[in-house]
Amino acid sequence: MLIILLLLIVLIFVLVRVIGHGGKSSDKDKKSADSAASGENRGIIFIDPGHGGMDSGSDDDNERYEKDDTLKLGLAVRDHLQALGFKVAMSRTEDEMVDRTERGEMANKAGAQFFVSIHRNKADGGGQGVEGFIPKEDDAESRLLGENIMHFLGKAGFEERTIRAGTLVSSAEDYEENAAAEMPSVLIEVGFLSSADDNYLFDNNLDKNAKAIADAINYTFMTLYEPEAAAEYEQMMAQTEAACEQIMKSTNDALSGASAAFDGTEEGTDSGGADPQA
Q1: Is the CATH code 3.20.10.10 the one for domain 29-231?
Q2: Fewest beta carbons within 10 Å, which of 47, 83, 231, 274?
Q3: Helix (H/G/I), strand (E/B), else coil: 116
Q4: By three-state DSSP, how is residue 64 classified?
Q5: How many angstroms separate the CA atoms of 100 and 26, rounded?
Q6: Distances (CA, A) of 53 to 67, 102, 180, 191, 192
């Protein structure tokens, strides 16, 4: 049984490496890397780490402030996006206060294709997971961007909540950032500061979370502007999911077989004592 488990672990490792990378760098990955190295840009993404300076945002009653978390995550997202060949503009790269409307206007001046404002949530009565807010018009591109980011963060470990048009209070109103931005935009809440579980996921998977957001932005960009690359990506994801399902089935079958064999061995073993009829 131990040998079977070890073989399955090796098989999973090999398949993840091969399927995840296609066995070699894909043309899309090579193009992105070449673009980043040459200074060419596939597009411009605006990342807005929420709050800053005197505006600390939410806190967890233990000297942990939203403005610090959003900046750490925003800078990490920037690095991943640049590695994918994007030019990244930001509302802030240090602890400074920026007017909320100005953030959207900065994205307009930068000529950004997407505006992503990073925040963290808080609820006195509990709450976990990722949710987001898009413009009240509920345009399809903003919704696609928001839902992709939420789903990719869900794969990174967060609970998925919902993407809403408007604000928490009213679907007829907009947050200032979304109101000012003239491109697809989303204000994404990456977990609850009031949740110890979400804080654990945020702190221990910071780079994984940043990559999830960058990959979601990249996938949305491909869907809207690079349809051939998006089709290739979707095919790769479908193959990966199918392979994972097959691995899980094979694992369950192997464990069931090993368990049955073990039970059979147990049932066929006696104490070695004398024959009671002797």
Answers
A1: no
A2: 274
A3: strand
A4: coil
A5: 39
A6: 8, 15, 21, 21, 21
Q: Does the pLDDT of residue 275 top 80, yes or no?
A: no
Q: Which residue has tokens 């960009």?
A: 221
State pTM to two decimals.
0.76
Best CA proximity match to 99, nearest among 177, 170, 165: 177
Write the single-letter amino acid at 271. Answer: S
Question: Residue ranges per domain, the chain?
Answer: 29-231
pLDDT digits (tens, 9 = 90+) for 201-227: 999 999 999 999 999 999 999 999 988
Q: What type of residue sits at position 3?
A: I
User: Hey, what are 12's tokens?
Assistant: 């999973």
What are the strands of the beta sheet with 130-134, ordered from one edge? Answer: 87-90, 44-49, 114-121, 185-192, 130-134, 160-165
Contacting residues for 126 by C-beta, under 8 A, at least 6 apart: 194, 195
**3-class DSSP state of 170:** coil
- For residue range 154-208, list pLDDT tens digits in order: 999 999 999 999 999 999 999 999 999 999 999 999 999 999 999 999 999 999 9
In this structure, are residues 206 and 70 in contact, taking their beta carbons and an 8 Å threshold? no
**Does residue 6 carry a pLDDT above 80?**
no
Residue 34, amino acid: D
